[in-house]
Structures are given as structure tokens and as C-alpha cells.
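Private note to self, pasted from the team thread so I don't lose it. C-alpha cells:
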């Protein structure tokens, strides 16, 4: 008996040592196997010298300690002696000025405040490896980049590397409520434990900051855009201050969401009119108080006059007047207002697609310089595929930032593997033709086409209290990809996928090509089994889980038939000049090409056109048949993903493999559910048989319609 107990303990210990629950993200630092590299690194880790002092350098020391122990089984040596024992030099351009040539200093300066240089420097006959930034945080970014090069097998000690972000604010938006529920959160509860703050500081906050800094994310908004004014009370400012202090050495600034009616809710005023002197004074004082706690506070993120949130319209004022009120309060402190363009009226719009442009374009030039308009990637709402939002390129005198959704509200939530970088890449690379004929969304957003300096890429976070942070382990790749694209919107989804796979699962070539292949195919698979050929907004009511093309009731623009418009003649939303003319909000080049159903990319077909079921597509097949083929192809792609995953079983630790295996099985069922339910429903209009080559949809449409998910996660709070 005793022996059995000992054996069980041994097993438990051994397997817990092997177990990998994904907590370490892409920063798990697997051991370096290559002997030459090991010996080079071992030498480098034997002598780090910092040219200055900074809390950020302490962060770097911790990261070097962790990485040294995990990659080499060796603790780094931090020397106080600059020359003899030293192998690696770390510091800012200014700190290293005595050892850098003027030319080196000039080229470093050109990299901007977050840029870095790393490479060999020869000084008095000895070569050092140096990592230099213009600020300590640039050094931190350089160190993370160096560690990444080791983890992705691309470190060359003789090569120089420079990099700097193309976007100024690289920001996560948490939709976290003060009671720790997370709107559209699928990974547990909020990691911000407001109740225990400021007294208790969860160590997880630091791992969160590390992960963000490793990607160059430099701003976080902590609270839900459907905001609670309480966050602006003194008690909560004290709590937010603790987080801001923790994040500062990692180069991360804290933002908070501001509820427009806060002057009434916590200020005791009778109005929140942006032109009222008492309201102006409230915001001025509130902002001053905020800066007394957080001297580098980033600013406010605001959702106003959208989906029931209060805003300037209540007082007959426009969005610019609302935004400028807060901008003026923040300006003396260097803060920024991020004003969301996700608006649609309380009354039914003729086409919700048009609303933001109708409301914001006339305000171009009216916003203060410290306002950024944060625009979702598409005009409806984070659908699996949307054409880019027509506001990009349409407001040349305004700072226009991007809002992506990392949390997979409409893309499988936490039960589906959907790598989102291909979607973001597609949007960023879309041609806007404005402000210049060669402009792209990415160019408008990063300022290269718009000429703007105050640039922003924001992503709605998918982070929660689950051990693996993101619910689905593979959704870590979306946090990773978001950060990388915010740093450089020109990166490809493939490059990013390969980096992430190497850093997460290791460098085995077969594993790399198979798992990155799965990631890269996954988004198109989801589009196919959910909303192919430009279909959109046909998901389940409210929780948005699963199919719901039949959903009616409430506001028409919250229902599915409003968007798919299926009838006995055909399907799709006519947004051309003969319909709502939302298409007319794009540049003439796009209007011309997309007005023609034969010329528009088929992926956007039903987004802009209502077409007969027998309309012929490029394949020569009818629209009805192609819809069926797309749904079926989506299901088959998921099954392929399952097979691929099985084939790499011996290359991945059992815990993470099994986690993903189970979720892929759920995904396969959900994909079939989407296909069957949507095709059976659309068939009631099309009245045609399914194409013979697809797996024939099974199940009972009435049963699909009757499914209810009252406990689905992430449901929005009721106003
Ligand atoms: C929608 C979400 C809702 C958010 C809203 C927003 O369903 O929960 O509040 O976006 O972005 O996609 O404000």
C-alpha cells in the first residue's frame, strides 16, 4: 500500500512537471538544444551590463533571469563593471553616448521613442552584444525581440537589427465590468480584482504586463465601454493607480472608459451637457484628480450615443462637442480622448451600415488634436468577414484609429479555433483609394497615408481568469497577432503564425508547418460554415452563440432577416445605388467595381447585392449551390483540422494536445450545426434541392430554432 502511494505521488509529481496548462503563453522559453547556440548564449548570459538605472531595467533583469534559467538552466550574471566581464550592453542612446559614434547616435534617434537597435559593437578591440533604445522601454522591446529571435531560431550574433513601431498607441480594450463579469468574455472573469484592490496585488497583473510588453502593446483601457461612472470615483482611482504603477515599467499606460453622464451620476449635477460650465468644470476637476493619482494617465475611451449609452445628443450637441469636452480637460496633462465611431441611432436607420459615416464625416476637422476616432474594422459589427469601414480614408482631418475585436464574439467564442490575423490583414491591406489613390486602411491607420502622428490600433481583449488566459489555448495566437499587427500593420498573418507556433509549441518543422497551416486556414473555414459569400449578422440572439438566421423580434437591425433579406426570389442586402446605397460611401473606384455583381469580389457579394437564387457565380454554379458548397467546405475544413491535430500528437505535451483536441471536436459539431441550420432555413425560401456533392444537411429546423442558451458566456449587461 505504502509503495502504491509512493508510486502515485511520483506519477503526480512527474506529470505535473510535464503538464503545460498554457499559462506561460509564448514566453515559456523552451530549452535551447543547438549546442553552438547554447554555448554562445551561455557566454552572453555570463555578463550583462546596464549603462543606467530604471525600473524598466529591473523588469529586463527578471526576464533575463527567467529566460536564462528556462532556456539554458543558467542564471544570468549582471555585472557592475562595464568592460572586462561584460558580454552584453544594455541602455539608452544617451546612456551609451560615450561608446557610440555620432552616426550611430543619429540613426538610433531616428527610430523614435519606442524603437531599438541590437547587434555587435566593437569597442577598444572587444566586441559586445548591445541592445539600445531611445528610452528604457525601447531597450525592453529590444530584449524581447532578441529573446524571440532565440526562440524562433533566427538569432545571429553578428547581425544588426533595428525596429520601431509604426503605430503610436497599441492598445487593448478590456470590456471588463467592475463586478468582474466580462462583456463578450469567454475566458472566465476579469483579471482585475477591483474589490481586493488596492490592497491586494495579484501576481498575474505582472505576467499580463510582461506579455503585452513582449508584443509592444503600450496602452490598456481597463473597463467596459458600456461604462460604469463609478470607475471615476476617488476610491476606484486609487485602485487604478496600483495597476498603472505596476504597468509603468513595462511601458504601458492606463486608460479608463468615461461614462458621458458621469457628471450627473457621481458629480451631483442635473445635466451632462458638454457646453454647460458646471459640466466642463466637473471634467476638468475629475481629470486633475485622475492625474494626481496617475501622472501619466493615458486618457478616456468613450462609447456615446450608441446602444443606449448616454452622450451629447441628449443635449442637442454632436459627437465633436462631446469629445472636445473631454479633450480640453485632458490636454493640459497630455491625455487623449478615444471616441468610438460605433454608433447607430435609437430610431431605425435606413441601413445601419451608413450611420457612422452620416454622423461623423460632416464633423471632419471639428475634433481637437488629442481626439482619436476609434473605428471598428467594418461598418456593422465585427462579423467573420466585413468589407472595411468606409470611414477609413473619409476623414482626412481627423485622427482615425482601428478597433479590432480579439475576443471571438462572432467567431466561435472560446470553443472554436479561429486565428484572426488573416482577417485583420485583409482589412489592413484593403485599398481605400483615399486620401491618396494608393492608400490602404493600414496606411490610413499607421499615418503613412494620412500623415497623422497620433495613431492607434486597439483590440477588444480576449483575456480572462482562465489559467491559459484566453479560454481556448489557440486563442492566445490572437492576442499575440493583435500585438504584432498593432506594432507593424504590414506584417503578414503567416509570419506571425509561424512565430507564435515556434514560441508556443517549439521548432519542429513538421509541427510548425502543420499547426501554422491549421491557423491560417481556420478563419476562412469559419466564414464558410457561418456566413459565406458576404452573409452577415445571422448568429444567435443576444449571446451571439451559434446560428440564428431566423432571429426576429425587437429592433429590426438586431435581427437576422434585416441583413440576409432572403425571400422566394433570392438573398442578400442591396446596398448599391438601387438599394440603401451604403456602397456610395466608399471611394468612386470601389463604387464602380463593387456595384457590379460580376465584378465585386465574391466574398462580399451578398453584403452589397440581393441576387436571385439562380444567379451564376464565377464557378458557373448557381448562387444557391455555391452557398451549399461553402457551408459544407467549412465543415470539411474543421474535420481536416482535427486530423492534422491528431497527426502532431506526439510532438505536443499531452495536456495542451488534449485541450485542443476536445475543443476541435466541439468545433466540428458546431460547424455542422451552423451548416445544417442555415441551409435548412434558407431552403425554405430557395425551395431547391441541396447540391448533390455536399453532405446533406440533417436535423430538424424547428429543433434548431428552439435551442436556447441562457447560460452562454459573455452576455452583455442589461441597461
Ligand atoms: C457589440 C457587442 C456589444 C458591445 C458593442 C460595442 O455585442 O456587447 O457593447 O459591440 O462595441 O459587438 O460597443
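Design output:
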Amino acid at each position: 500500500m505504502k509503495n502504491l502511494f509512493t508510486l502515485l505521488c511520483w506519477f503526480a509529481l512527474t506529470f505535473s512537471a510535464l503538464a503545460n496548462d498554457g499559462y506561460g503563453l509564448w514566453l515559456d522559453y523552451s530549452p535551447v538544444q543547438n549546442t553552438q547556440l547554447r554555448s554562445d548564449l551561455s557566454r552572453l548570459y555570463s555578463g550583462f551590463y546596464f549603462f543606467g538605472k530604471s525600473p524598466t531595467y529591473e523588469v529586463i533583469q527578471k526576464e533575463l533571469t527567467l529566460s536564462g534559467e528556462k532556456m539554458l538552466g543558467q542564471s544570468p550574471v549582471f555585472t557592475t563593471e562595464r568592460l572586462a566581464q561584460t558580454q552584453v550592453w544594455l541602455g539608452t542612446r544617451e546612456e551609451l553616448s560615450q561608446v557610440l559614434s555620432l552616426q550611430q547616435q543619429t540613426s538610433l534617434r531616428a527610430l523614435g521613442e519606442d524603437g531599438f537597435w541590437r547587434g555587435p559593437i566593437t569597442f577598444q578591440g572587444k566586441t559586445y552584444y548591445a541592445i539600445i533604445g531611445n528610452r528604457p522601454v525601447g531597450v525592453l522591446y529590444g530584449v524581447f525581440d532578441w529573446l524571440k529571435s532565440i526562440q524562433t531560431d533566427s538569432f545571429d550574433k553578428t547581425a544588426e537589427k533595428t525596429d520601431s513601431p509604426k503605430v503610436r498607441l497599441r492598445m487593448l480594450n478590456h470590456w471588463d465590468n467592475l463586478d468582474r463579469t466580462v462583456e463578450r468574455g469567454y475566458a472566465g472573469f476579469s483579471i482585475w480584482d477591483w474589490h481586493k484592490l488596492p490592497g491586494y496585488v495579484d501576481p498575474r497583473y505582472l505576467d499580463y504586463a510582461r506579455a503585452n510588453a513582449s508584443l509592444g502593446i503600450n496602452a490598456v483601457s481597463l473597463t467596459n465601454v458600456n461604462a460604469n461612472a463609478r470607475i471615476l470615483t476617488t476610491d476606484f482611482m486609487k485602485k487604478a493607480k496600483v495597476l498603472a504603477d505596476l504597468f509603468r515599467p513595462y511601458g504601458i499606460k492606463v486608460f479608463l472608459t468615461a461614462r458621458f453622464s458621469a457628471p450627473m451620476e457621481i458629480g451631483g449635477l442635473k445635466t451632462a451637457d458638454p457646453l454647460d460650465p458646471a459640466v466642463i468644470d466637473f471634467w476638468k476637476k475629475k481629470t486633475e484628480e485622475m492625474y494626481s493619482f496617475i501622472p501619466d494617465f493615458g486618457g478616456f475611451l468613450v462609447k456615446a450615443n450608441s446602444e443606449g449609452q448616454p452622450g451629447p445628443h441628449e443635449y442637442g450637441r454632436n459627437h465633436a462637442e462631446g469629445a472636445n469636452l473631454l479633450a480640453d480637460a485632458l490636454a493640459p496633462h497630455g491625455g487623449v480622448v478615444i471616441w468610438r465611431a460605433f454608433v447607430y441611432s435609437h430610431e431605425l436607420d435606413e441601413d445601419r451600415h451608413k450611420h457612422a459615416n452620416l454622423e461623423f464625416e460632416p464633423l471632419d476637422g471639428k475634433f481637437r488634436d488629442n481626439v482619436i476616432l476609434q473605428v471598428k474594422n467594418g461598418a456593422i459589427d465585427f462579423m467573420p468577414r466585413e468589407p472595411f469601414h468606409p470611414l477609413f480614408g473619409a476623414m482626412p482631418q481627423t485622427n482615425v484609429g482601428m478597433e479590432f475585436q480579439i475576443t471571438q464574439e462572432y467567431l466561435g467564442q472560446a470553443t472554436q479555433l479561429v486565428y484572426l490575423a488573416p482577417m485583420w490583414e485583409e482589412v489592413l491591406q484593403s485599398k481605400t483609394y483615399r486620401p491618396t489613390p494608393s492608400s490602404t486602411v493600414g496606411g490610413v491607420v499607421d499615418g503613412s497615408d494620412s500623415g497623422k502622428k497620433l495613431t492607434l490600433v486597439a483590440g477588444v481583449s480576449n483575456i480572462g481568469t482562465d489559467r491559459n488566459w484566453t479560454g481556448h489555448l489557440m486563442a492566445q495566437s490572437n492576442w499575440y497577432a493583435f500585438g504584432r499587427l498593432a506594432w507593424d500593420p504590414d506584417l503578414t498573418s503567416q509570419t506571425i503564425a509561424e512565430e507564435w507556433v515556434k514560441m508556443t509549441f517549439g521548432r519542429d518543422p513538421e509541427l510548425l508547418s502543420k499547426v501554422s497551416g491549421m491557423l491560417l486556414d481556420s478563419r476562412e473555414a469559419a466564414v464558410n460554415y457561418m456566413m459565406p459569400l458576404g452573409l452577415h449578422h445571422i448568429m444567435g440572439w443576444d449571446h451571439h452563440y451559434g446560428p440564428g438566421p431566423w432571429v426576429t423580434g425587437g429592433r429590426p437591425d438586431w435581427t437576422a432577416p434585416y441583413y440576409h433579406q432572403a425571400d422566394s426570389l433570392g438573398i442578400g442586402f442591396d446596398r448599391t445605388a438601387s438599394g440603401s446605397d451604403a456602397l456610395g460611401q466608399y471611394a468612386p473606384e470601389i463604387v464602380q467595381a463593387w456595384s457590379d455583381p460580376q465584378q465585386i469580389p465574391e466574398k462580399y457579394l451578398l453584403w452589397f447585392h440581393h441576387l436571385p437564387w439562380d444567379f451564376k457565380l464565377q464557378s458557373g454554379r448557381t448562387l444557391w449551390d455555391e452557398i451549399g458548397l461553402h457551408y459544407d467546405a467549412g465543415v470539411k475544413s474543421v474535420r481536416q483540422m482535427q486530423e492534422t491535430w491528431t497527426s502532431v500528437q506526439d510532438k505536443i505535451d499531452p495536456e495542451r494536445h488534449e485541450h485542443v483536441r476536445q475543443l476541435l471536436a466541439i468545433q466540428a459539431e458546431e460547424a455542422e450545426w451552423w451548416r445544417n441550420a442555415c441551409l435548412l432555413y434558407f431552403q425554405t425560401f430557395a425551395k431547391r434541392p441541396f447540391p448533390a456533392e455536399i453532405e446533406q444537411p440533417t436535423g430538424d429546423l424547428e429543433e434548431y430554432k428552439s435551442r436556447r442558451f441562457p447560460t452562454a458566456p459573455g452576455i452583455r449587461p442589461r441597461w
